[in-house]
Design a protein that fits this description.
two-stranded antiparallel sheet; disordered C terminus; about 240 residues; mainly alpha; disordered N terminus; about 60% helix
């Protein structure tokens, strides 16, 4: 556990999107810190209800989470040394492929442009776990994922309680079930250091916006699809043409 504490101290070095309705721009910052100056501000009126800055940022956070947790789940299926770790990896793959499908479905209806790359912070998590092996991988995997899911859990609840947009509300319902499931399977590995995890959940480091924001996709770039792959850890993400 001590090794994980040292590495995790530098790890926390979340997710981004532009609305295509009106003159709205790609958010300046999305991650574990405050994302907007006015999260309750309505930025678009859609058939499913008003869309606030917080609603928009939430859709992108869900998408960005999948862009790093899906490949990490595949890593766990290949590198996990215990059945519990491998099972947790399968839950990540299944959960985020499902959330990804919902994000891709509702984004055009909301006028949200989804990122195709996770933030530099999130890419750092993938790099760390890619370089890990054996028990070190298992430990880092369980603790990093437990921290990040614990951080987003309260955000899901807040969005569900406050959004007036029916599509965002449905996404929050799905995300709530998925995040709780992922928290549970991480804890079932028996590797979670709760003292360290809870500290990191409540005292995230201050990081520059550039570390927390996924880059916007170039115009016309195909949308990355996180393909469901039950029992197939070798499956890889594919692409689909951009809508519009």
């Amino acid at each position: 556990m001590g090794i994980w504490r040292n590495k995790a101290g530098t790890l926390f070095v979340g997710g981004g999107v532009a609305l295509t309705l009106g003159a709205l721009v790609y958010p300046a910052m999305l991650g574990v810190q405050n994302t907007t100056s006015s999260p309750s501000r309505v930025i678009a009126n859609t058939p499913s209800g008003p869309l606030t800055e917080a609603d928009r940022d939430f859709v992108v956070k869900v998408r960005a989470a999948g862009l790093w947790e899906y490949p990490v789940g595949q890593l766990a299926l290949k590198k996990g040394t215990t059945a519990a770790v491998r099972s947790a990896g399968q839950h990540l793959v299944d959960g985020h492929s499902g959330l990804d499908a919902t994000c891709r479905k509702i984004a055009p209806q909301l006028g949200v442009t989804l990122p195709n790359l996770a933030s530099p912070q999130q890419q750092g998590f993938v790099s760390t776990l890619s370089s890990d092996s054996g028990k070190q991988f298992d430990t880092d995997f369980a603790n990093i994922l437990r921290v990040t899911h614990g951080q987003i859990f309260s955000t899901v609840a807040k969005i569900r309680a406050t959004t007036e947009n029916s599509l965002v509300r449905a996404l929050a319902d799905q995300a709530n079930d998925t995040v709780l499931d992922h928290i549970t399977v991480m804890e079932k590995t028996g590797l979670v250091d709760f003292g360290t995890v809870l500290f990191k959940e409540t005292t995230p480091p201050k990081l520059p916006a550039s570390d927390l924001t996924p880059p916007p996709p170039p115009p016309g770039e195909p949308i990355l699809v996180l393909t469901p792959s039950p029992g197939a850890p070798s499956a890889s993400p594919t692409t689909t043409p951009t809508v519009g």
